[in-house]
Design a protein that fits this description.
It contains five helices and twelve strands. It is α+β, with helices and mostly antiparallel strands. The protein has a single domain, classed as GHMP Kinase, N-terminal domain (Ribosomal Protein S5, domain 2). Strands 1, 2, 3, 4, 5 and 6 form a six-stranded mixed β-sheet that branches. Strands 10-9-11-12 form a four-stranded antiparallel β-sheet, sandwiched between helices.
């Protein structure tokens, strides 16, 4: 079945067509970002890429800093994959795929220095803000990594500090102060089957893919993260081509971050 699907998509790709009717191997489905979708989060966003829908929310807590970074706040990224979004997901502890999504998104944000973590310090070495990003797909219709990255960045852009009174957080009161967002790193995942490199596969196309390369990029095109996935190898020439494709796609996706 998989081999038949791969043969089918390759015949489409030879004509620069996609299974869902798109033209162009690097064409994205329709993209939208909606902010403030959760009243209980400090920041939130809903991202749609085609029929793929991902929610991301930001919660904040006051904690002690990590021992090796006493002068910085903390950043955590979690992902939860539920049967609601795909019949392939199961309830229970985080799956390997959920852990990978969280780690890849975290790496791009962290290595891209999205947040100025030093500005999250309340008392050096004693108290800092911890920023927690929760990613929850609502519908997996392909390319979850890009949707998760865009949703996480959008939620950070939307977030505001809760009130801090006598060392305690009042989650019912938000301040007007936004998080110290200093960069907008985004992931773009380039998929490979045969000799073809494509962007934004839908659910069916994704089953025919043999390899993927997730590329984290800053606004000026600087590379901040790379993550290889699945079995197929990328030649050095394909890696360079993938990074070039990702740079163009990141510029396209970043225009939807309007805050």
């Amino acid at each position: 079945m998989v081999h038949d699907l791969r043969d089918t998509v390759k015949r489409y790709y030879e004509k620069d067509l996609r299974l869902d009717g798109r033209k162009g191997l690097t064409t994205y489905r329709d993209v939208s970002v909606q902010y403030g979708v959760s009243k209980n989060a400090e920041g939130s966003a809903r991202v749609r890429i085609g029929e793929t829908v991902v929610l991301a929310g930001v919660k904040m807590a006051v904690d002690t800093p990590y021992p090796d970074t006493p002068d910085k706040g903390n950043l955590m990224v979690n992902a939860e994959l539920t049967p609601l979004s795909s019949p392939e997901f199961e309830a229970g502890p985080p799956s390997d795929w959920a852990i990978e999504i969280a780690r890849v998104v975290d790496r791009a944000l962290r290595e891209g220095e999205a947040l100025n973590l030093k500005e999250l310090v309340i008392e050096p070495g004693e108290k800092v803000w911890t920023v927690i990003i929760d990613i929850v797909p609502v519908n997996d219709a392909g390319n979850l990594l890009d949707a998760a990255s865009l949703a996480a960045l959008a939620a950070l852009s939307d977030a505001r500090f809760p009130a801090l009174k006598d060392g305690r957080i009042d989650y019912h009161e938000k301040t007007d102060t936004r998080l110290p967002l200093q960069a907008k790193p985004l992931l773009v995942t380039v998929y490979k089957t045969g000799d073809f490199l494509i962007l934004d596969p839908d659910y069916e196309e994704e089953k025919a893919m043999e390899g993927r390369l997730s590329v984290g990029l800053l606004e000026d095109g600087t590379l901040c993260a790379l993550q290889k996935g699945w079995a197929a190898a990328f030649t050095p020439e394909e890696v360079l081509k993938a990074v070039g494709l990702a740079r163009t796609a990141a510029d396209h996706l970043r225009q939807f971050i309007t805050r």
